[in-house]
Amino acid sequence: MHPATATGVIAGFVAALFPLLRDFVSQELQQSPAALLGDAWTTMLGHHDFYTALRRECEVAWSSVAIPVRLKPYFDKMACEDCGSALLQPAIDNDAPNATLDDRTHTVVCMACDLKTSSMLLLENVLLGELGLYDPTHGGEPPVIECSQCSHGTYVVAEAVCFFCEYRPKYFECAVCQQPLGLDDQDNGGLCGYHSNVMDND
User: Fold this and answer.
1) DSSP letter string over 63-118?
2) Of 108, 138, 168, which marks where a domain is finished?
3) Which H or E run includes 154?
4) Neighbours of 114 (CB within 10 A)
5) Distance (Å, rounded) from C-alpha 192 to C-alpha 164?
């Protein structure tokens, strides 16, 4: 068969399926998985153990990287943009050995296909995808925008908070006309751009 699904996704699926198949054969069919499946069982066992070991290796590698609490659920959903594998590790950059997740030089490497990409860029894409895509051609507003404080695309509009740096705006509507205020208006002291200009020119 020639599946359209990326090979990295299939590898993870097979590894996740292994315990279910083992329990079904032994508990429901009352048979030995090794006896029933023969060489296929040996192959699956080897793949499962190998994949599980790599996942554990990834978890250990990320344990020293500070992941913001609000981003942790989305971090756990990161996958390689090329092959779809969840086997991602923080890459070792000799030019920036002390780079943190906050640094754009911090990269992640896929253990399945060796693709390297920006850790934050990948995480921002996951966050945007999980919170819902939008269509700007039909007047749609992005659910996630760039935070004015940390400059990451992690400010969630619906919750009015940045999932990376926890920044929350102070003003939500203009004190004069009650016009909704965005992140760009926060330096106007509670006024919209128009009324801020009016005050400055008086």
Assistant:
1) TTS---GGGHHHHTT---TTT----EEE---TTSTT--TTSTT-EEEETTT--EEE
2) 138
3) none
4) 11
5) 26
Instruction: Record the tokens describing residue 144, joined without a space.
Output: 């996630």
- Per-residue model confidence as pLDDT tens digits over 111-159: 888 889 999 999 999 999 898 766 666 666 789 999 999 999 999 998 9
Cβ atoms of 192 and 198 within 8 Å: the answer is: no
Do 133 and 145 share a structural domain?
no
Question: pLDDT, tens digit, for every residue of 35-75?
Answer: 777 777 777 777 777 778 888 888 888 888 889 999 999 99
From CA 62, how far away is CA 121, in angstroms rounded? 17
Determine if the pTM surpasses 0.90: no
Domain with 11, as residue range(s), is 1-63
Which residue in the block uniquely carries the two structure tokens 């020119």?
A: 201
Final residue before a domain boundary, out of 122, 138, 154: 138
Q: Are 12 and 86 in contact (CB under 8 A)?
A: yes
Does one domain contain both 68 and 57? no
DSSP 8-state code for residue 155: E
Residues 11, 51: contact at Cβ < 8 Å?
A: yes
